[in-house]
Specification:
This protein is α/β, with parallel strands linked by helices. The protein folds into 2 domains: 12-190, Rossmann fold; 201-408, Rossmann fold, CATH 3.40.50.10300. The protein has 15 helices and 19 strands. The protein has an 8-stranded mixed sheet with strand order 12-11-8-13-16-17-18-19, with helices on both faces. Strands 2-1-3-4-5 form a 5-stranded parallel sheet, sandwiched between helices. Strand 1 (19-24), helix 2 and strand 2 (46-51) form a beta-alpha-beta unit. Helix 2 packs across helix 10, helix 5 (86-93) packs across helix 7 and helix 11 packs across helix 15.
C-alpha cells in the first residue's frame, strides 16, 4: 500500500541546507535504509546515520558510510565526537530525526523514555521533530501494547510514516510493512514544503496515446510519460491538488496525485474536458496523437497485400481547446521538436494562445523520449528561461517553480 500525501514540495535548492539524522533500529527492513539515504541525498538533504547494535547485525555501518559520505554513529560515548558527547552533538545538528525502520521495541523505548543507546538517547536530547517509519510483523503492529505506545508518541507530536500493508519477511501479509524508500523520502521532503501552489488545482496530461487500427494494432509514439509524471509529482510537491490524465504507461502514479487512465486521444480529450473546469493550471505534457485511423477494423487485419493504405483523420486539439475556454486555466504546453526549437515553440505559443510552453529537442542521445534526463527551453510572452540537462524530476521542480511564479504574476495583474 502506497502512502498518499496531498501537500508536498521542495525545490532542490530549498533542501541543500536541511539535515536529516537517520536512525536505524534492528529490523529486517534495515536492508532498505541505504536506499533511503540515497534518495534523501538526491533531494538535496545532508544525511547522517546513527545505528543501534542490533541494526549493525542486519546492515554494516560501512554500507551507510558509503552512501551517506559521512562517518556512521553507533556508540553512545563516541570518543571522536565533540567532548565525547555524540548524542548531544547529533541532537543539535539534526533538523529532523527519522527512524526507519522503527521496530516495536524501538517504539516502546521512545514511548517510555528509555535511553540505553545512542539513538534512544539523542531522541530524548533533541528538540527537532521526530519521524518514525514502523516496520514489524502484523500481529506486533496490532498488539495492544504497540497501539498504546503509538498513541503516546502521536500525542507527543511524533510523526508516523505508515506502516504499509503487504507481504512481510515472515511470510505473512498485513499491516506493518515499512514504506518504500521513495515514499519515505518524498514524505520527508513534504515537511519542508514551499507551498508555491498550495490551494490550487492543477491538471497534467502525460504519456502517449494509442489510436487503434484493429483489436491488436495501434498507432502511437515514443513518449514514456516520464516527464509528465515528473511534472505531476512536482506540482503535488508544490502543494497543489493534482489530477493526472495519463495515456498507457508502466509508471506508478506519483504520491498525492489522482490519476485518470485513458488510451486514445479522444478518451484523453473527454477526460480533460470533463474535469479541467475546476483547475487553475493546465499542463499538457502528453504526446497526444495528431491523427487517428478513420476506420477501425473489428477483426484483426490480415497480411494479404504488398501495400496497405490507412486513412487518418485529425484528432481534437486538447491544448488549444483548453486555452480557448471561457475562464481558461493558466495553460502550459509542451513541444517536442527535431529542429529550430524556439521558432516552432513560440509559433505554437502564439497560435494556441498559451500562457507558457516548454520545448525540448528530441533525437538527442541521453535526453527526451524514454530517457531519465531532459533539458527544456521555456517560453512565454516577453520571456524565456533555459533549463539545462538534468534528471526529469529535478527539471520538473524547476519548471513548476517558473509556472507558479508566472501564474501568480498573471493572477495579480488581472486583479489589479
Amino acid at each position: 500500500m502506497r502512502a498518499r500525501v496531498d501537500r508536498i514540495y521542495c525545490n532542490m535548492t530549498d533542501l541543500t541546507n536541511k539535515r536529516i539524522l537517520l536512525g536505524i533500529s534492528g529490523g529486517i527492513a534495515a536492508y532498505k535504509s541505504p536506499d533511503i539515504v540515497r534518495r534523501l541525498r538526491e533531494r538535496g538533504f545532508e544525511v547522517r546515520v546513527a545505528m543501534t547494535r542490533a541494526a549493525c547485525e542486519f546492515v554494516t555501518p560501512l554500507t551507510f558510510q558509503a552512501v551517506s559520505g559521512k562517518s556512521v554513529h553507533t556508540h553512545l560515548l563516541d570518543a571522536s565526537a565533540e567532548a565525547a558527547m555524540g548524542h548531544i552533538e547529533l541532537a543539535r545538528w539534526a533538523d529532523t530525526v527519522l527512524i526507519a525502520p522503527a521496530t516495536a521495541d524501538y517504539l516502546a523505548k521512545l514511548a517510555h523514555g528509555i535511553a540505553d543507546d545512542l539513538l534512544s538517547t539523542l531522541c530524548l536530547a533533541t528538540t527537532s521533530p521526530i519521524v518514525v517509519a514502523p516496520a514489524m510483523n502484523r500481529q506486533m503492529w496490532d498488539a495492544e501494547a504497540t497501539r498504546e505506545n503509538v498513541a503516546v508518541l502521536k500525542a507527543r507530536g511524533v510523526t508516523f510514516l505508515g506502516p504499509g500493508d503487504g507481504s512481510q519477511a515472515c511470510g505473512e501479509v498485513g499491516p506493518g510493512r515499512m514504506l518504500e524508500p521513495a515514499d519515505i523520502s518524498a514524505l520527508i521532503a513534504a515537511r519542508y514544503n514551499c507551498d508555491k501552489l498550495r490551494g490550487l488545482k492543477v491538471m497534467v496530461t502525460a504519456g502517449a496515446t494509442r489510436e487503434a487500427l484493429d483489436p491488436v494494432r495501434f498507432i502511437s509514439n515514443q513518449s514514456s510519460g516520464k516527464m509528465g509524471y515528473a511534472v505531476a509529482n512536482a506540482a503535488a510537491e508544490a502543494g497543489a491538488r493534482v489530477i493526472l490524465v495519463s495515456g498507457p504507461t508502466s509508471l506508478e502514479a506519483p504520491l498525492g496525485v489522482d490519476r485518470v487512465c485513458v488510451n486514445s486521444a479522444q478518451e484523453m480529450f473527454a477526460a480533460v474536458m470533463q474535469r479541467v473546469g475546476e483547475s487553475q493550471i493546465f499542463i499538457g505534457a502528453a504526446a497526444v496523437s495528431d491523427y487517428a485511423p478513420k476506420e477501425y477494423a473489428e477483426q484483426k487485419l490480415k497480411k494479404s497485400k504488398d501495400r496497405m493504405t490507412i486513412e487518418l483523420v485529425k484528432t481534437r486539439d486538447i491544448l488549444a481547446e483548453v486555452a480557448a475556454m471561457d475562464h481558461a486555466p493558466f495553460t502550459v504546453g509542451f513541444a517536442a521538436e527535431t529542429d529550430d526549437v524556439e521558432t516552432y515553440a513560440r509559433d505554437k505559443l502564439r497560435k494556441k494562445s498559451l500562457d507558457m510552453i516548454a520545448a525540448n529537442l528530441v533525437g538527442v542521445p541521453g535526453s527526451g523520449f524514454g530517457s531519465d534526463e531532459n533539458a527544456l527551453s521555456v517560453y512565454w510572452s516577453g520571456g524565456a528561461e533555459e533549463l539545462e540537462l538534468a534528471p526529469k524530476l529535478h527539471l520538473a521542480r524547476r519548471l513548476i517553480g517558473i509556472v507558479a511564479d508566472r501564474y501568480r504574476e498573471k493572477h495579480s495583474a488581472q486583479n489589479s
